[in-house]
C-alpha cells in the first residue's frame, strides 16, 4: 500500500516519518519525495545521512545518502532499489521523479559538488564610509561528491560570505544571462511581519531563515543547466578572497547599471512576441497576487497568535481557582495545564507557517526576475525595430537622391528647391555615405534579428522550465500548508479532549 | 432527582414592535425595561422572538434537561419564560415576557398559569424574597441596562440573553425548597397584571422599609464582633471566588473578541487564493482547494464563537453576579448578628446601671421632686428591671433570628456550591466539546480536500 510520509528532519541527523494520508495515486507518493527535498532544502543539508523511521514502530525504513538520493532521482531508468519506501519504488516512479525533481537535465554543478550554507556568524568591520558596523556572514561548505561516494568522508572546504556578496553574484548572473529567469535571493529586509516576528535583520530567527534562503539560492543556481556552468559561480563557492576582483574584472557592473535603466525605460514595441507579452502580464499578476496573499496571511497569523495566547490566561486563573476548591480542584488544575499547553502550541505552528510564507515569497521575487526577462525581450525587439526602420528610411533617402524624386517632404528637398540644387559632386558624396550607412545598417539588422531570435529561443526554454518548476514547487507548498493545518487540528483535538476529561473530573 | 428545564424554542418573528417611537425617550434609570426604538431598528430580523411554546406537559417533559443532582425531591413545578413582546402605552414602551407555569402543587388553585411580566416585576419578586429570607441565596437577575452596551440594548441578542437569564432565575427559585413556597412567588406566577399591582401595594409601607434600612446601615457601621469561624471562611472564599470568576469572565470575553478579529481576517484571506487561481492553469485547482479550506475554517470559527457567546459567557457572567449576591447575603447575616450583639451590650449596660449604687445626681433629683431617697431608688430599680426584662425578650427573639439565619445560610451554602459546580462544569465541558468538534470538522474537510483537489 502506498502511503505518503510526512518527514521531519531532526537534530542528530535522524528523520521521522509519520504516515499522514494514504491516497492510492502515485503522483502523491512522489509528492512525498518532493516534500522531502523541500524540507531538506529549507531546514538544512547538514545531515549527510538520512535515516527514515516509521513513526509508530520506529523501524528504520532505509538508509540513504542525500546526494545519492538526488542523483537517483535525476537519473532515468536507474535500476537500483529506491531509497525511500523500500520495494514500493519502481522504475516508472523513478521516471516520474526525474521529471519532478529540482535537479536539472544536463551536467550541473550540483551533481559534482555538495553545497550547503551551514552557519551564520556576526562580524564587525569597517564599511565603505569607514564606520564600524555589525554584519552577518554565512559559511558556505562544499565537498566533491566523488569523494563521498567512494566512502571517504572528507572535511568540506568552506568560506564565509556576506549577503552583499550574494547580491553581487546575482547581479552578475542577471547581466550575463539575461534570458534566464535567475533565482531570487531571500528578502533583504523583513517584510510582511506580524507583531511577534522581528523586523530586525539581526534577529536570530530572521538570520536562520535567511541562511536557509541563501542555501536554496545556491542549490537552485548550481542545479540550473546554464547557470551552473558559470566560472564566476564556481569561484564564488571556492575562492574566498580573490573572488570580488575577479567578478569586477568581468565589467558586469557597467552592464548592470545600464540594465537597470533599460528596465524602467518606456518605449513602444510594435511587434513583440505575444507569448512574452502574456508572460509579462502574468508576472505582474503573480507579483501583486502573492504579495496580497502574504500580507493577509501575516495578519491572520497575528490574530491566531492572539487567540491562542489568551487561552494561557485560563491556565493561570484555573490554577489559582483550583486552590480554592476542594472537589473541583484537581480537575481545574489539570485543565489549566492543558490550557497552557494550548497557548504554547501556537509558537511552533506559526514558525512552520513562516517557512510556507518563505516558499511563497521566493515566487514573489521570482516574478520580478520573470518580468525582467520579458522586458529584455521587448528591449531587443525594440532595438531591432529601430534598426530596421532606420535602415528603411536610409534606403528611401538613397532612392530619392538617386532618382531626384521627392517621395516625402524633406527639409533638404525644400532647400534644394529654394536655394538651388547641389552640385553633382556633393550628391555623389552623399550617396556613397548613404551606401555605407545602408551596408552597416543591414549588418546591424541582421545581427539584431539573430540576437532577437536567439534570445527568444533561449528565454522561452527557460521560461518553460521556470513554469514547470513553479507549478511543482507551489503545489508542494500548498499541500504542505494543508498538512500543516491538519497538524494544527490534531493538536487542537488532543488538547481539548484532554481538557474535556479534566472538566469531567470537576 | 431534580431537573432543570432549558426550554429552547425556535424563534419566529412576532410583529409587535413599532418602527419609530424615537419621540418618547424616557429616563432610563427609572424603568429598566423601557425599550427606546430608533429609526435604525435592527430588531426586525426574523430571529428574535420566540414562538408560542407547545403547551402539553408531555412535550414540556421532553424538553427537560436532566441533571445529575443530589436533591431527591421530584419536580412538581415547571416554569418557562419566553415570547418577549413590546408594549406601547401613551406614557412608555416596555417589554414583557410570558411566564408559563405548570404545577401539581396543592397551594396553587390551578395546574396551569400563563401571565405576562416585565423586568420590574422580577425585580420586585427578588426584593421580596430577599426581605423575607435575608440569608438565603437568591439567584441573581440579569443586569439592568448596561451603559457600555448601548447598541446591544436595542437588538434581539440582548433581549434573548435577558430572557434566558430570567428563565433561569425563576427555575432556580422553583428548585429551592424554601423560596419556592413563598407567597410572593406564588402570586408572581399566578396573578393577572392588575392583581399583581394591587398585591404589590400591600405589605410594609415606605416608612417602615426606610426604618429597616436605617437600622441595617447602623448595624453595618457597628460591625460584628464575634463572627463564627465558618462564616469568616465562607467570606474569604467568596472574596477569592469573586476575583477568579471575574477574571474568567474577562478572559472569556477577550477570547470572543480575538476570535472575532481572527474571523474577520480569515474572511479576507480565502479570496486571495481564489483570486490567484484565476491566473494559473495547473495550480488553479489546488489554489481553489486551499481557498475552500479557509472558507470552511471561517464557517466553523463563526459557529464556535457563537457557541462560546451563548453558553460560556452568560454562565460566567451569572456567577460574577452570584458572587455579589453572596457578599450581600453574608453582610445581612453579619448585620443580624450585630443587632443581636448590640442588644446584648445594651442589656449588660442596663444591668450594670441597676446594680450600681444610686448616683448622687439621681438622689439629688429625687429629693428635688420631693421623693425620699429610698423610694426614688426603689422606683428606679423597678424601672430598670422592667427594661431589662423587655430587653431579654427582644434578645431571645434576636437570638432565634441569628440561629435561624445562620442555619439557613449554612444549608443554602451547600446547595449553592453544588449548583455552582454543576453549572460551571457543564459550561466548560460544553465549550471543550465544541472546540473538539470544531477541530474535528475542519480536519475531516481538509483531509477530503487533500485527496480530491490538492
Automatic annotation (TrEMBL), chain A:
<comment type="similarity">
    <text>Belongs to the sorting nexin family.</text>
</comment>
<dbReference type="Pfam" id="PF00787">
    <property type="entry name" value="PX"/>
</dbReference>
<dbReference type="GO" id="GO:0032266">
    <property type="term" value="F:phosphatidylinositol-3-phosphate binding"/>
</dbReference>
<dbReference type="GO" id="GO:0031201">
    <property type="term" value="C:SNARE complex"/>
</dbReference>
<dbReference type="GO" id="GO:0005886">
    <property type="term" value="C:plasma membrane"/>
</dbReference>
<dbReference type="InterPro" id="IPR034902">
    <property type="entry name" value="PX_SNX4"/>
</dbReference>
<dbReference type="InterPro" id="IPR034783">
    <property type="entry name" value="SNX4"/>
</dbReference>
<keyword id="KW-0813">Transport</keyword>
<dbReference type="InterPro" id="IPR036871">
    <property type="entry name" value="PX_dom_sf"/>
</dbReference>
<keyword id="KW-0653">Protein transport</keyword>
<dbReference type="GO" id="GO:0015031">
    <property type="term" value="P:protein transport"/>
</dbReference>
<feature type="domain" description="PX">
    <location>
        <begin position="116"/>
        <end position="243"/>
    </location>
</feature>
<dbReference type="GO" id="GO:0031901">
    <property type="term" value="C:early endosome membrane"/>
</dbReference>
<dbReference type="InterPro" id="IPR001683">
    <property type="entry name" value="PX_dom"/>
</dbReference>
<dbReference type="InterPro" id="IPR037430">
    <property type="entry name" value="SNX4_BAR"/>
</dbReference>
<dbReference type="GO" id="GO:2000786">
    <property type="term" value="P:positive regulation of autophagosome assembly"/>
</dbReference>
<protein>
    <recommendedName>
        <fullName>PX domain-containing protein</fullName>
    </recommendedName>
</protein>
<dbReference type="InterPro" id="IPR027267">
    <property type="entry name" value="AH/BAR_dom_sf"/>
</dbReference>
Automatic annotation (TrEMBL), chain B:
<dbReference type="GO" id="GO:0005769">
    <property type="term" value="C:early endosome"/>
</dbReference>
<dbReference type="GO" id="GO:0034727">
    <property type="term" value="P:piecemeal microautophagy of the nucleus"/>
</dbReference>
<keyword id="KW-0813">Transport</keyword>
<dbReference type="Pfam" id="PF09325">
    <property type="entry name" value="Vps5"/>
</dbReference>
<dbReference type="GO" id="GO:0015031">
    <property type="term" value="P:protein transport"/>
</dbReference>
<dbReference type="InterPro" id="IPR036871">
    <property type="entry name" value="PX_dom_sf"/>
</dbReference>
<dbReference type="InterPro" id="IPR015404">
    <property type="entry name" value="Vps5_C"/>
</dbReference>
<feature type="coiled-coil region">
    <location>
        <begin position="381"/>
        <end position="408"/>
    </location>
</feature>
<dbReference type="GO" id="GO:0000422">
    <property type="term" value="P:autophagy of mitochondrion"/>
</dbReference>
<dbReference type="InterPro" id="IPR027267">
    <property type="entry name" value="AH/BAR_dom_sf"/>
</dbReference>
<keyword id="KW-0175">Coiled coil</keyword>
<dbReference type="InterPro" id="IPR001683">
    <property type="entry name" value="PX_dom"/>
</dbReference>
<dbReference type="GO" id="GO:0032456">
    <property type="term" value="P:endocytic recycling"/>
</dbReference>
<dbReference type="GO" id="GO:0035091">
    <property type="term" value="F:phosphatidylinositol binding"/>
</dbReference>
<keyword id="KW-0653">Protein transport</keyword>
<dbReference type="GO" id="GO:0000407">
    <property type="term" value="C:phagophore assembly site"/>
</dbReference>
<feature type="domain" description="PX">
    <location>
        <begin position="75"/>
        <end position="196"/>
    </location>
</feature>
<comment type="similarity">
    <text>Belongs to the sorting nexin family.</text>
</comment>
<protein>
    <recommendedName>
        <fullName>PX domain-containing protein</fullName>
    </recommendedName>
</protein>
<dbReference type="Pfam" id="PF00787">
    <property type="entry name" value="PX"/>
</dbReference>
<dbReference type="GO" id="GO:0061709">
    <property type="term" value="P:reticulophagy"/>
</dbReference>
Amino acid at each position: 500500500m502506498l502511503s505518503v510520509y510526512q518527514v521531519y528532519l531532526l537534530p542528530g541527523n535522524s528523520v521521522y516519518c509519520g504516515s499522514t494520508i494514504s491516497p492510492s495515486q502515485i503522483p502523491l507518493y512522489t509528492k512525498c519525495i518532493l516534500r522531502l527535498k523541500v524540507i531538506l532544502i529549507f531546514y538544512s543539508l547538514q545531515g549527510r545521512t538520512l535515516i527514515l523511521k516509521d513513526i509508530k514502530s520506529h523501524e528504520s525504513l532505509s538508509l540513504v545518502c542525500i546526494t545519492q538520493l538526488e542523483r537517483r532521482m535525476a537519473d532515468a531508468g536507474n535500476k537500483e532499489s529506491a531509497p525511500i519506501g523500500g520495494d514500493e519504488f519502481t522504475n516508472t516512479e523513478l521516471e516520474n521523479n526525474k521529471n519532478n525533481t529540482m535537479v536539472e537535465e544536463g551536467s550541473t554543478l550540483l551533481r559534482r559538488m555538495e553545497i550547503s550554507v551551514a552557519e551564520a556568524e556576526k562580524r564587525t568591520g569597517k564599511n565603505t564610509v569607514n564606520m564600524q558596523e555589525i554584519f552577518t556572514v554565512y559559511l558556505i561548505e562544499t565537498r566533491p561528491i566523488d569523494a563521498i561516494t567512494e566512502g571517504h568522508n572528507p572535511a568540506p572546504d568552506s568560506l564565509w560570505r556576506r549577503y552583499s556578496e550574494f547580491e553581487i553574484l546575482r547581479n552578475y548572473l542577471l547581466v550575463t544571462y539575461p534570458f534566464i529567469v535567475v533565482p531570487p535571493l531571500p528578502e533583504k529586509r523583513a517584510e510582511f511581519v506580524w507583531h511577534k516576528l522581528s523586523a530586525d535583520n539581526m534577529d536570530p530567527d530572521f538570520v536562520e531563515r535567511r541562511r536557509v534562503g541563501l542555501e536554496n539560492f545556491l542549490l537552485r543556481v548550481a542545479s540550473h543547466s546554464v547557470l551552473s556552468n558559470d566560472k564566476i559561480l564556481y569561484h564564488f563557492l571556492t575562492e574566498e578572497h580573490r573572488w570580488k576582483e575577479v567578478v569586477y574584472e568581468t565589467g558586469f557592473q557597467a552592464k548592470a547599471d545600464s540594465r537597470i535603466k533599460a528596465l524602467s525605460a518606456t518605449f513602444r514595441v510594435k511587434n513583440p512576441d505575444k507569448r512574452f507579452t502574456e508572460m509579462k502580464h502574468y508576472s505582474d499578476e503573480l507579483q501583486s497576487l502573492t504579495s496580497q496573499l502574504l500580507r493577509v496571511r501575516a495578519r491572520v497569523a497575528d490574530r491566531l497568535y492572539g487567540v491562542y495566547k489568551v487561552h494561557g490566561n485560563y491556565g493561570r486563573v484555573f490554577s489559582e481557582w483550583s486552590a480554592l476548591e476542594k472537589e473541583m480542584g484537581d480537575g481545574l488544575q489539570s485543565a489549566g495545564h492543558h490550557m497552557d499547553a494550548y497557548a504554547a502550541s501556537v509558537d511552533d505552528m506559526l514558525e512552520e507557517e513562516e517557512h510556507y510564507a518563505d516558499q511563497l515569497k521566493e515566487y514573489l521575487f521570482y516574478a520580478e526576475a520573470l518580468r525582467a526577462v520579458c522586458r529584455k525581450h521587448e528591449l531587443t525587439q525594440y532595438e531591432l525595430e529601430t534598426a530596421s526602420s532606420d535602415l528603411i528610411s536610409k534606403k528611401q533617402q538613397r532612392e530619392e537622391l538617386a532618382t531626384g524624386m521627392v517621395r516625402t517632404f524633406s527639409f533638404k528637398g525644400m532647400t534644394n528647391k529654394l536655394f538651388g540644387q547641389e552640385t553633382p559632386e556633393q550628391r555623389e558624396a552623399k550617396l556613397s555615405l548613404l551606401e555605407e550607412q545602408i551596408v552597416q545598417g543591414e549588418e546591424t539588422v541582421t545581427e539584431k534579428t539573430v540576437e532577437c531570435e536567439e534570445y527568444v529561443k533561449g528565454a522561452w526554454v527557460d521560461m518553460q522550465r521556470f513554469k514547470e518548476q513553479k507549478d511543482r514547487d507551489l503545489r508542494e507548498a500548498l499541500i504542505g500548508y494543508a498538512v500543516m493545518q491538519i497538524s494544527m487540528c490534531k493538536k487542537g483535538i488532543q488538547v481539548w479532549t484532554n481538557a474535556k476529561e479534566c472538566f469531567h473530573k470537576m | 432527582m431534580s431537573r432543570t428545564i432549558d426550554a429552547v424554542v425556535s424563534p419566529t418573528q412576532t410583529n409587535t414592535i413599532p418602527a419609530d417611537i424615537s419621540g418618547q425617550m424616557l429616563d432610563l434609570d427609572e424603568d429598566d425595561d423601557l425599550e427606546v426604538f430608533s429609526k435604525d431598528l435592527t430588531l426586525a430580523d426574523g430571529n428574535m422572538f420566540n414562538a408560542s411554546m407547545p403547551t402539553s406537559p408531555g412535550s414540556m417533559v421532553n424538553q427537560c434537561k436532566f441533571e445529575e443532582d443530589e436533591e431527591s425531591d421530584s419536580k412538581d413545578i415547571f416554569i418557562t419564560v419566553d415570547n418577549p413582546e413590546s408594549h406601547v402605552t401613551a406614557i412608555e414602551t416596555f417589554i414583557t415576557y410570558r411566564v408559563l407555569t405548570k404545577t401539581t402543587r396543592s397551594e396553587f388553585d390551578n395546574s396551569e398559569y400563563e401571565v405576562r411580566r416585565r423586568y420590574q416585576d422580577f425585580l420586585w419578586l427578588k426584593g421580596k424574597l430577599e426581605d423575607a429570607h435575608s440569608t438565603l441565596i437568591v439567584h441573581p437577575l440579569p443586569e439592568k441596562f448596561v451603559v457600555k452596551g448601548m447598541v446591544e440594548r436595542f437588538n434581539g441578542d440582548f433581549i434573548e440573553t435577558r430572557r434566558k437569564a430570567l428563565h433561569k432565575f425563576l427555575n432556580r427559585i422553583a428548585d429551592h425548597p424554601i423560596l419556592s413556597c413563598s407567597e410572593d412567588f406564588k402570586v408572581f406566577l399566578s396573578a393577572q397584571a392588575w392583581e399583581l399591582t394591587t398585591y404589590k401595594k400591600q405589605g410594609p409601607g415606605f416608612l417602615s422599609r426606610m426604618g429597616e434600612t436605617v437600622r441595617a446601615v447602623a448595624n453595618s457601621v457597628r460591625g460584628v464582633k464575634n463572627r463564627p469561624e465558618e462564616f469568616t471562611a465562607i467570606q474569604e472564599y467568596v472574596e477569592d471566588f469573586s476575583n477568579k470568576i471575574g477574571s474568567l469572565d474577562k478572559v472569556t470575553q477577550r477570547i470572543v473578541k480575538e476570535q472575532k478579529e481572527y474571523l474577520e481576517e480569515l474572511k479576507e484571506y480565502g479570496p486571495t487564493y481564489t483570486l490567484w487561481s484565476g491566473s494559473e492553469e495547473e495550480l488553479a485547482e489546488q489554489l481553489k482547494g486551499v481557498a475552500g479550506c479557509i472558507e470552511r475554517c471561517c464557517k466553523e470559527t463563526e459557529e464556535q464563537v457563537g457557541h462560546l457567546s451563548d453558553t460560556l459567557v452568560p454562565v460566567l457572567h451569572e456567577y460574577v453576579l452570584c458572587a455579589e449576591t453572596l457578599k450581600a447575603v453574608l453582610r445581612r447575616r453579619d448585620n443580624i448578628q450585630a443587632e443581636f450583639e448590640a442588644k446584648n451590650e445594651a442589656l449588660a449596660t442596663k444591668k450594670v446601671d441597676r446594680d450600681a449604687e444610686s448616683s448622687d445626681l439621681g438622689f439629688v433629683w429625687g429629693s428635688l421632686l420631693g421623693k425620699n431617697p429610698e423610694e426614688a431608688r426603689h422606683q428606679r430599680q423597678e424601672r430598670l428591671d422592667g427594661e431589662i426584662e423587655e430587653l431579654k425578650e427582644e434578645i431571645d427573639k434576636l437570638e432565634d433570628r441569628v440561629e435561624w439565619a445562620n442555619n439557613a445560610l449554612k444549608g443554602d451554602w451547600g446547595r449553592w456550591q453544588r449548583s455552582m459546580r454543576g453549572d460551571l462544569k457543564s459550561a466548560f465541558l460544553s465549550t471543550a466539546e465544541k472546540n473538539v468538534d470544531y477541530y474535528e470538522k475542519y480536519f475531516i474537510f481538509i483531509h477530503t480536500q487533500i485527496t480530491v483537489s490538492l
